[in-house]
Amino acid sequence: MVSDAHRRVIAIDGPAGAGKSTIAKALSSRLNMKYLDTGAMYRAVTYEAMLRELDLHDQRCVAQLAQECDLHVGIDRVIINGHDATVAIRSAEVTGNVSTVAANSDVRTEMRVRQQEWATAHGGGVIEGRDIATVVFPNAVLKIFLTASPEVRAQRRVDQSGGDVTEIAAAIAERDLLDRTRADSPLASSSDSIIVDTSNRAIEDVVDEIEKLFLERSL
Ligand code: CDP
Hints:
Radius of gyration: 17 Å
Distance between the termini: 23 Å
Bound molecules: cytidine-5'-diphosphate
Largest sheet: 5 strands, parallel
CATH topology: Rossmann fold
Shape: globular
Number of strands: 8
CATH architecture: 3-Layer(aba) Sandwich
Helix content: 40-55%
CATH class: Alpha Beta
Order of helices and strands: HEHEHHEEEHHEHEHHEH
Strand content: 5-15%
């Protein structure tokens, strides 16, 4: 049976730089719902595996770490095994390796269970990721797939963290390809997702649109 909490989820999926985090956070505060960044969970496991110098292609070893780790992902803090990884999980090194760890099926199974437990504990929420609508919460009340042109997505990342736009665009394209082509729960829109292109729109405008869609559905 599908729990009511799993229905009270707004799923926000999409590729890097589509605006997921900004839009999901704004929505959660407007609607007074909890917010979960599932990408931060995969990033934290990747960071911890790198810290322990594990071979990221050793699926069993990385999966065991994922299964045993004490992980807390809050709105502005990420703590893994007692240490604060909030900043470290955004490094270029972690970003470059996270798709390898996220392709590990046993890691995904563990993260999926934790995400579902999180929603049960919080009575739903605004949850962002890559497979939230397709796999983790197929019964979510609202499913949004955010997109933006590759140029806009790369420029947003440069505005956030600096760097060379051509290099960032190439890194994003490589990660997108890995995320879209992996066997287990690849990045994809669900057949019942609403696709929203954020390329030339103000954040507030997109948040307004999603809020309206949610309020219509929850009447
Ligand atoms: O912020 P950005 O969009 O760059 O990435 P993120 O949301 O922090 O996700 C980092 C990586 O985690 C993605 O590139 C995916 O490989 C993986 N991920 C995933 O596989 N499934 C999710 N639900 C969320 C993230």
